[in-house]
Amino acid sequence: MQIRPFHLSRRRLAAWYTSIMVLILGGCGFIIYRLVVHAKWLSLEKEMRNVAVVVEKWLQPALVGTSKVDLTVEPIASAFCFELQKCDRPSIPDSTMGTGFALLDQTEKDHYCVRLLDTKDHPIAILKFPFTNPVCQEPQLWETLLDSKGNYYHNKVYMIQSRSQDSWGSLQMLRAVTDLDIYLFWIEICLMVLILSSIGLAGAASWWLAGVAMQPVQRSYQQMQQFTADAAHELRTPLAALKAMAQAALRSDELTPDEAKETLEVINRQSNHLSTIVQDLLLLCQMDQPTITKTFSPCCLNTLLQELVNDFIAIAKTAEITLDVLIPDQPILMVLGNSDQLYRAVANLLSNAIQYTPAGGVVTVILSHGATHAVIQVHDTGIGIAPEDQPYIFDRFYRVDQKRTRKQGGTGLGLAITQAIVQNHQSNLQVESQLGKGSLFKFRLALIKEV
Ligand code: ADP
Fold it and tell me: Which domain holds residue 20?
């Protein structure tokens, strides 16, 4: 289920992703469109130049002097329409036109209007053949580049030479761009459809991506909420006991010395429990802050574990448990770490081992090594942990048997703290356990010097 603030953040994130995608796709689409337009114009102008060359070659035998036409040269002379009067199309067979014109098909010929200009750019004649488009005779076409059918024309002027290779005047060519307009219109439609469907897909992908991105945040938020609820629950129990004892003491008119002692003992026990929970929580918080926890110095594991075992001998004896120690005097195993934290980590394991081993059992602390690593193991012959509980015992406040561990004063934070410390030392705490047979907790630490 989605929590409301996360749902809002997901929507915002997806909106941002989509907007960025729209910008990128829109930008790419625009660039592609401009490139297509540019390429089309280039090929159109190339085509116009080619046509101009063909027309000039065909006309040249009739071009004489400066802007004069030799009207005796047929069939070229029949193709000129002077003074821009209404001209009929002459019946000149295509076969007399030469090979250059054969390259132009009829539609292309219809796209063109050509007229001749003198050296001062005054129009002399319209070429009524081989270009057959009747709108070429509309006078306003040459001014507005727009014919009566609403077609736009592209205008180009080319210098031409007479048959004696002197400068004769120029050739003004108009080329209808209707086909280009239609082509670009379809390119625009295709790009639009492509961009819109890409935006739709990008929107869906963004929504999914935002969901994936939010998952770890949401998970850690839920874990934090769970942790806060668990911590409040843990703190509430001793607080409730303290409150109940204080109220009972206040209600009774006179407490006997035994009752007063009992009340104070409960208050003392519960406040000790409370302070243990608070200290454990603070320690866990410190573990989460890498800058505070990384105050490492060389530690001698042999000494550290020996001191720890000595501190637990009395507790094990009281619990009627045999505490075995397999810690070699040599070699000295030195690791880089925080000795207080390492002491705390193994102490948690040892105290659990004693706590969850019935009287008469055996708890063993073993220090062994490989070439580059020391291995610390705490083994017990206690009640063991069921396989289904093993994945959760390192979670904060997780207890296999709630009633039993609470009664024994456990906070449910011991293994979480040990795991945090061990991970802080770049290692991992492992457990092997069999219900009713016992448990083994172990972790490795990198040695400063190889042994
Ligand atoms: P607690 O303060 O309750 O001992 P821990 O985090 O140290 O909390 O341990 C979590 C749970 O794992 C304990 O409640 C207990 O059920 C189980 N556990 C830990 N160590 C052992 C062990 N050596 N033998 C059996 N059960 C254990």
Answer: 4-185
Give the bridge partners for 116, in sequence order: 125, 171
**Same domain membership, residue 267 and residue 303:** no
pTM exceeding 0.90:
no
What spacing in Å lies between the alpha carbon of 4 and ligand 1's midpoint? 36
Q: Where does a domain end: 266, 292, 318?
A: 292
For tokens 């090979």, what's the residue?
A: 99
Please tell me whether residues 343 and 427 are part of one structural domain.
yes
Q: To test ligand 1's pocket by mutation, which of 390, 411, 415 has the most ligand atoms within 8 angstroms of CB?
A: 415
The owner of tokens 């409370």 is 274
Examine the fold and report which residue of 243, 273, 292 is the final residue of a domain before the chain moves on: 292
Closest residue by CA, ligand 1 atom 2: 410
Give the number of residues written for the chain.
451
Distance CA 323, CA 321 (A): 6
Indicate whether 217 belongs to any domain.
Answer: no
- For residue range 107-122, list pLDDT tens digits in order: 677 788 888 998 888 8
| Atom nearest to 415 CA in ligand 1 | 6
* Burial of 335 per CB tally in 10 Å (0-12, 13-18, 19+): buried
Residues 330 and 402 in one domain: yes
Q: How far is the CA of 396 from the centre of ligand 1 (A)?
A: 11
358: in domain: yes
Going by the DSSP 8-state scheme, the letter that residue 112 receives in this structure is E
Provide residues with CB under 6 Å of ligand 1: 348, 352-353, 356, 380, 382-385, 393, 398-401, 405, 410-416, 439
Quick check: is 398 in a domain?
A: yes
CA of 431 to the centre of ligand 1 (A): 11
> pLDDT digits over 270-280, tens only?
899 899 889 88
Tokens read off for 259: 């009752």
**Domain identity same for 57 and 167:** yes
Say yes or no: 259 and 328 in one domain.
Answer: no
Would 237 be classed as within a structural domain?
no
CA of 321 to the centre of ligand 1 (A): 17
- What's the total number of domains in the chain? 3
Indicate the SS3 state at residue 433: strand
Q: What is the mean pLDDT of the chain?
A: 87
